[in-house]
Amino acid sequence: MVSDDRYEKMIEAFALAKNFLKQQVDLGFDEVYINKKSSPKKVFKAAKTLNDFFQEIKDCKKCHLYKTRTNFVFGMGNPNAKIMFVGEAPGREEDLQGEPFVGKAGQLLDKILAAINFRREEVYIANILKCRPPENRDPLPDEIQTCEPHLLEQIRIIQPKIICALGRIAAQALLKTKLPLGQLRGKIHDYHGIKLLVTYHPAALLRYPQYKRATWEDVKLLKREYDNLG
Ligand code: SF4
């Protein structure tokens, strides 16, 4: 006979597993990483880790950008983060250091995070492309298409509750739209069951400080959504 307490835990475990599988399907993945010895509640723990995935793709040569990169820029932060920030591609400093959002734009992102009581280590930060496009040009559609599965896998592993797309290119790539950033920001989008918000890229704020007010409105919305997660 199963006790009420155990029964409730089983229901909770099955609900977790069901949500996990639904998200896999929504994200278009046809593989599920489950250790056969694990209970349903341990499905998340049994999944491939970010480090496993890093090792798997760190020498990626799927598109021509590998030829000009100094470093592959995987992403950084808390592998259990509830919030993920996604930019478009590494710039010069990121390419040299192998980390996303370093240099002046990264410092500004840190300040934005601090303004809503987050530290960089608490969130996860990544880009759509893992290698720098030459001369910091915009990523090409075929580069995005080739590299995006890497980001999708990171999202699948981290399972954030909220994604914040930084800049037009990241927002358009994730939401599969050509709408301008002005029409995408200021609202909550659904990204395969994950809340997605859009705001300006910190590098754009350095060039156009007049966007800072709108960015502040966006990050306040982000913080409200985060606080509502409970
Ligand atoms: S940009 Fe992405 S797909 Fe292209 S080589 Fe780098 S990691 Fe691979």
List keywords for this structure.
binds iron/sulfur cluster; six-stranded mixed sheet; alpha/beta; 230 residues; 6 strands; Uracil-DNA Glycosylase, subunit E
How would you describe this structure to a colleague?
The chain is an alpha/beta fold and about 230 residues long. The protein has a single domain, classed as Uracil-DNA Glycosylase, subunit E (3-Layer(aba) Sandwich), CATH 3.40.470.10. Helix content is about 45%, strand content about 10%. The protein has a six-stranded mixed β-sheet, with helices on both faces. A hairpin with a 2-residue loop joins strand 5 and strand 6. The chain is globular and about 40 Å long. About 10% of the residues have low confidence. Bound molecules: iron/sulfur cluster (SF4). Iron/sulfur cluster binds next to helix 6. The site of iron/sulfur cluster has 13 residues, from helix 6.
Quick take:
This protein has 230 residues and is of the alpha/beta class. It contains ten helices and six strands. A six-stranded mixed sheet has the order 1-3-2-4-6-5, sandwiched between helices.
List the helices and strands and how they pair.
Blueprint: H1 4-26, H2 43-46, H3 50-57, E1 76-77, E2 83-87, H4 92-97, H5 103-115, E3 124-127, H6 141-158, E4 162-166, H7 168-175, H8 181-184, E5 189-191, E6 194-199, H9 202-207, H10 212-227
Parallel strand pairs: 2-3, 2-4, 4-6
Antiparallel strand pairs: 1-3, 5-6
Residues 60-63, 65-66, 129-131, 143, 146-147, 150 line the site of iron/sulfur cluster.
| Distinct small-molecule ligands in the complex | iron/sulfur cluster
Number of folding domains? 1
The total count of helices amounts to 10
Q: Class by helix and strand content? A: alpha/beta
Q: Could you give the distance between the termini?
A: 34 Å
Give the rounded overall mean pLDDT.
86
Q: Runs with pLDDT <50, length 5+?
A: 23-46
Along the chain, the helix and strand elements come as: HHHEEHHEHEHHEEHH
Give the tally of β-strands. Answer: 6
In CATH, what is the homologous superfamily?
Uracil-DNA glycosylase-like domain
Helix content: 40-55%
